[in-house]
Amino acid sequence: MNREALANFMTVRTKPAALVVAKSNGYREDDGQSKVEPHVGLEFDSAEEAQEFYSAYATQVGFKIRIGQLYRSRVDGSVISRRFVCSKEGFQTNSRTGCPAFIRVQKADSGKWVLANVKKEHNHEFEASGELCPPRIQRKSFPTPRSSCGGASRTGIRSHEDDGPSGVVDMKRLKKEEIDGIVGPIGEPYKGLEFNCANEAYKFYYTYAANTGFRIRIGQLFRSKNDGSITSRRFVCSKEGHQHPSRVGCGAYMRIQRQESGRWVVDRLQKEHNHEFESPTDPSRTVTVASKGYREEGNSVLENLDLVETNGGLSLVKRVRESNIDSDWYSLLLEYFQSRQAEDTGFFYGVEMHEGKGMNLFWADARSRFACTQFGDAIVFDTTYRRVADESEESFTWIFQSWLRAMSGHRPVSIIADQDRAIQNAIAQVFPGTHHRFSAWQILAKEQENLGALLSMDAEFKYEYETCIFQSQTASEFDSAWNMLMNKYNLRENMWFKEMYRMRKSWVPLHIKGTFFAGIPVDGSLKSYFSTILTPQTPPNEFVVRYEKALQQRREEERKEDFNSFNLQAVLHTKDPIEEQCRRLYTITMFKVFQKELLECYSYVGIKINVEGAISRYLVQKCGNGDERNTVAFNASNLNITCSCKMFEFEGVLCRHALKVFQIMNIRELPSRYILHRWTKNAKRY
């Protein structure tokens, strides 16, 4: 479709689109206009024109669209194909229904963009036709404000004054006198929008959010490998992530990229939210509050602050550490610590002081400290309730050092904690040799943020990616599958993939399962210890009471488990003496875990594949399922046994494959080293 032909039946508006007016086949609207149906072979001068056409078509039918996947040339990296999808495509939010409707346009040799694929069927009800008309921004004239960044003249959203009145919707705009230092473009963000500096972009997005009804945080940044200068920044919805009960994993964000000219351009944008908006606020007031330190720090505020990794994103942190513990909290907790220490001589607490102010607090009672001697080999560092003072490496280091002192220098074998760079560095410093595993929920959230569109729209990629992550049995298998993905989908230069590969030993199951993590599932989430009773909004005067109540509830659950283990007996299902041995030793919960593996081993077969001295190797596979197979090595001289599935190393319970080989070798009693003390009835919590 050339532009002359397009003009005969379609009125096109640029950024954003207005309604399409069609005179070809299709139904006719009340105003006498008809709409063009998308069909294979339809041509456009640009991908943006195709997007505008599909958006206008969607408006008349009664649905909304989003920008979907793009494909780049492997020769020069240019975009050669784009998908535009129904806004209800995928399942990332509750409002999405997995709708399959889309169009895909492909760049032809002529430079035109041709509609190559179309799916018109939706799996949801349409909204009222015409009510979804995309808004156009009416430009208002403001006196040119003084820029806080200096330099270039104002460049913003293009004027549409000459486009005519059709389809115009007035946006809420801020009066000039209501804007506190906000310069540059004002209106809705879009790709290609330019700013003089990062500050200007932040204030623009802040004002847009205030008008729309959400709040923002400063997200991730990227630096140049050459000189360390910042080349890219992200500003995200305040409900991004899952670190706090108020956060719902919202994917909305705006990313800006620094150009060679020194200006900053919006290069990535996600405007869809997965939550209800709040009432729009007055940005002239909210910006004043939010950027109090902003103006105090001078014009280059973002450059005078550090952005540190926190829970998969990055947060703004002042280089000068400040205390977030107010006097009410400090005095209340200090009084609580002193009273507990008078009752419990084993009660430990520590307070980090900085310039006369309390920065961080740590405490543990005698029972917790003793439990660490029994169960401190695998620990979880959960920051979802309330963050440390300033989320700096110094704060996390102090917390871990305090834990180490309280636990008499007992270092854990493994720790599950967030991916934050500050946490990683603190763990490496205080717990050298401890295997740091990233929180599963955080990995899932970052995958959704970086791969959401690709995973939801490309079933082949999703299958290959998940096979690479979860099915690789050796390091070479994983590397081979990973490299295939990078090459096939042109992801070799993707910064997120580069970083995740570098840190693969902290999240890929293959590299985790060889370390003891007490069987905490690799792909599962952990329930917060205090989540049902304590929240970040708990006032100081209720905190201690609720904390003690939560502690009592958890310990009551432990007492019930102990009582059941000593007074109830699980039913035996075999005559194998190993089953009786383990019922006698394990707690009732752990016996059920072991019993399941024992019963499963009867449906497996073991085949000896080689012998080297006292060591025999067996291929163990499920009967009728040749795909599920593991290698077991058995040493007849000392009864040592290892399996390629690494269940014992990861969970501390022998797997069905090892038990099958013990059956073959007629081993009637498990060596004591294969029954971990922490899983037995005799392991004491106090």
From TrEMBL:
Any GO BP annotation: regulation of DNA-templated transcription
Stretch list, region Disordered: 141-168
Locations listed in the record: Nucleus
Keywords for this protein: Metal-binding, Nucleus, Zinc, Zinc-finger
Pfam families per the UniProt record, alphabetical: FAR1, MULE, SWIM
Molecular function terms from GO: zinc ion binding
InterPro entries xref list: FAR1_DNA_bnd_dom, FHY3/FAR1, MULE_transposase_dom, Znf_PMZ, Znf_SWIM
Highest taxon above the source species: Eukaryota
PROSITE patterns (alphabetical): ZF_SWIM (PS50966)
GO CC annotation, single: nucleus
Record-annotated SWIM-type domain positions: 630-666
Family: Belongs to the FHY3/FAR1 family.
Function, as annotated: Putative transcription activator involved in regulating light control of development.
Protein name: Protein FAR1-RELATED SEQUENCE
Originating organism: Sesamum latifolium
Species classification: Eukaryota, Viridiplantae, Streptophyta, Embryophyta, Tracheophyta
